[in-house]
Write a structure and sequence with these properties.
The protein has nine helices and 17 strands. It is an alpha/beta fold. The protein has two domains: about 140 residues, 3-Layer(aba) Sandwich (Rossmann fold); about 180 residues, 2-Layer Sandwich (Dihydrodipicolinate Reductase, domain 2). A hairpin with a 2-residue loop joins strand 11 and strand 12.
Length: about 350
C-alpha cells in the first residue's frame, strides 16, 4: 500500500476544526501540519494531533513538506493560499467560496489548469447522501420536466464571519446545488438583500435564477433566523421532492392528487401520495475528503472542481449586483470568461 499522504490544513475556525477532526482520524493520510494565526487555537490543535504548527499558512505551504493542502481560512485568504499551493504543485481543497471575487476565482482556475493541479472546492452539500439520491431519482425521470427549485438556508448570525456577507458565504452553496439539480447554469439572476445585524455586509438574500430550459430557482438565505434550517424543494410535472440537508430526509409527492380529503363535508386538501425515500446516512465531509484524497493521489477531475466553484461565485456575485442595481443581471456570457482547459 502507498504511504499515507502528508496533508496540511490552513485555518482552524469552525469549518477548519471539522476538517481537523476528520483528517486527524484517517488512516490514508497524515495531518502533517496545521496553520492558524491564533496562538491558543494553534497550540490546542498541535497538542491534539501532533502536527507541526505554523502561525503563517504561507509558511506551512512552503516549509512543511506536505503533499496536499486543505484551505479553511477566511474567504479573503483563499486566493493567495491556493495560488501558493498550486505553484508548488500541491493538490488543493479550498473551502467554499472558491475566492472572494470572481476575478480571483478566474485566476485560480487558470493557474490550476495551466499546471495540471487538482483544485477541488468545498461545496460539501454535493456529498450529502440525500442530495445524491435526489440526483439519481431526477436522472431516472421522477419529476419529468423540471419546473422550479427552491432552497432555504437560514440560521442565527455567525459572529465569526466578518469578511463577506451571507451571499458569498452561504448562497454559493445553493447556487451550486441548484445548477447541479437543473443540469445547467442560470442565464439571468435577480435579488433583494438586506443588512440587519452584520456590521458591513448583507445578512439576508432572496434570489431568483432563470435557467435556459425555463426552470426557475429561488434562494432564501439569511443569518437572521433563530433556528438552523437547510431545505430544498424540487417541483416538476410528475411531482415534488422535499429534502432536509440536516436530517438527510428525502420525500417524493406525486403529481397525481386523486380525490380531495373531505372534512365536515368540505374538500380541504388535494395531495398526492407521499413516499419517504430511504437514504443511507453519512457525514458529507467524510465523503468530500475521500473524493479529494483520491484525486490528489491519482489525478482526474474533482467531483466539484474549480469551474464549479467559479460558477457558484459568479452567480452569487451576480445576485449581489442585481440587488445593488435593482435590475436583473445577465450571466449568459460568463462561460466565455472561464479559462480554457
Amino acid at each position: 500500500m502507498a504511504a499515507p499522504m502528508r496533508v496540511g490544513l490552513a485555518g482552524l475556525g469552525s469549518m477548519g476544526r471539522n476538517h481537523l477532526r476528520h483528517l486527524a482520524s484517517r488512516e490514508d493520510c497524515v495531518l502533517a501540519a496545521v496553520a492558524d494565526p491564533d496562538p491558543g487555537v494553534l497550540a490546542d490543535a498541535v497538542a491534539k494531533t501532533g502536527a507541526a504548527g505554523f502561525a503563517d499558512p504561507l509558511a506551512m505551504v512552503a516549509e512543511a513538506g506536505i503533499e496536499a493542502v486543505v484551505i479553511a481560512a477566511p474567504t479573503t485568504a483563499h486566493a493567495p493560499l491556493a495560488l501558493a499551493a498550486i505553484e508548488r504543485g500541491l493538490p488543493v481543497l479550498v473551502e467554499k467560496p472558491l475566492a472572494a471575487t470572481v476575478e480571483e476565482g478566474i485566476e485560480l482556475v487558470a493557474a490550476a489548469r495551466a499546471r495540471g493541479i487538482p483544485l477541488q472546492v468545498g461545496h460539501v452539500e454535493r456529498f450529502n447522501p440525500a442530495v445524491l439520491e435526489l440526483g439519481r431519482r431526477i436522472a431516472k425521470g421522477w419529476v419529468g420536466t423540471l419546473y422550479s427549485i427552491t432552497s432555504r438556508r437560514a440560521g442565527p448570525f455567525p459572529a465569526r464571519i466578518r469578511d463577506v456577507g451571507v451571499t458569498i458565504d452561504l448562497a454559493t452553496h445553493d447556487a451550486d446545488i441548484l445548477s447541479w439539480v437543473a443540469g445547467e447554469r442560470p442565464t439571468r439572476v435577480y435579488a433583494e438583500t438586506a443588512q440587519r445585524l452584520h456590521a458591513t455586509n448583507e445578512d439576508l438574500l432572496f434570489g431568483l435564477l432563470h435557467f435556459p430550459s425555463g426552470a426557475t430557482g429561488m434562494l432564501d438565505v439569511n443569518w437572521l433566523t433563530p433556528a438552523k434550517r437547510r431545505q430544498l424543494t424540487v417541483v416538476g410535472e410528475e411531482g415534488m421532492f422535499e429534502l432536509d440537508y440536516l436530517t438527510q430526509r428525502l420525500t417524493f409527492t406525486s403529481a397525481d392528487v386523486g380525490s380531495p380529503t373531505i372534512i365536515d363535508g368540505y374538500a380541504t386538501t388535494f395531495e398526492g401520495n407521499v413516499v419517504i425515500i430511504e437514504v443511507a446516512s453519512r457525514e458529507p465531509l467524510a465523503a468530500e475528503l475521500d473524493a479529494f484524497l483520491a484525486v490528489a493521489r491519482g489525478g482526474g477531475r474533482p467531483v466539484v472542481n474549480g469551474e464549479d466553484g467559479l460558477w457558484a461565485l459568479a452567480i452569487a456575485s451576480g445576485l449581489l449586483r442585481a440587488a445593488a442595481e435593482a435590475h436583473p443581471v445577465d450571466l449568459a456570457g460568463f462561460a466565455d470568461r472561464i479559462p480554457a482547459r
